[in-house]
Specification:
Helices cover 37% and strands 25% of the residues. The chain has helices spanning 14-27, 35-41, 90-95, 102-114, 118-125, and strands spanning 10-13, 47-56, 67-75, 81-88, 116-117. The chain has a five-stranded mixed beta sheet. The termini are far apart.
Length: 131
């Protein structure tokens, strides 16, 4: 299993993102949005993006596997892109195909840096977090 944090962006569809969130929930990872909330608020046919930013080692909980904390650029049903976080197993991330060129990755990272957070979007729109 690769533990070095890759400097890349991966694109996933809504169904795949829901599966990643379900895996994070199954492992009890701390950074994830509830699957039901995602199902309710994500644009069904959208592409979402994962950008690993931190290697998460929980030394106080040795039973927890190493995770990569990813910033995720989510497209919600309003068409807006918002910023969330998702902890992903390194092997799971590595299984996501590399489909983006360098220019696209740079553009996505720029959009991530400018995106409103899920919390800000929920506060502005009144969409219940964790519903």
């Amino acid at each position: 299993m690769a533990l070095d944090l890759p400097r890349t962006v991966r694109a996933v569809g809504t169904a795949q993102l829901l599966a990643l969130a379900q895996e994070a929930a199954m492992h009890g990872f701390s950074q994830r949005l509830p699957v039901d909330w995602l199902r309710e608020h994500l644009a069904a046919e959208a592409t979402h993006y994962l950008f690993p930013t931190v290697v998460q080692r929980l030394t106080h909980r040795p039973e927890m596997p190493v995770q990569w904390r990813c910033q995720q650029l989510l497209t919600v049903s309003t068409g807006e892109q918002i910023l969330g976080l998702l902890d992903v197993l390194p092997d799971t991330f590595d299984e996501i195909p590399e489909t983006l060129d360098t220019a696209s990755k740079k553009d996505i990272v720029n959009r991530i840096e400018q995106a409103v957070t899920v919390r800000e979007w929920v506060e502005r729109t009144g969409a219940e977090a964790g519903s």
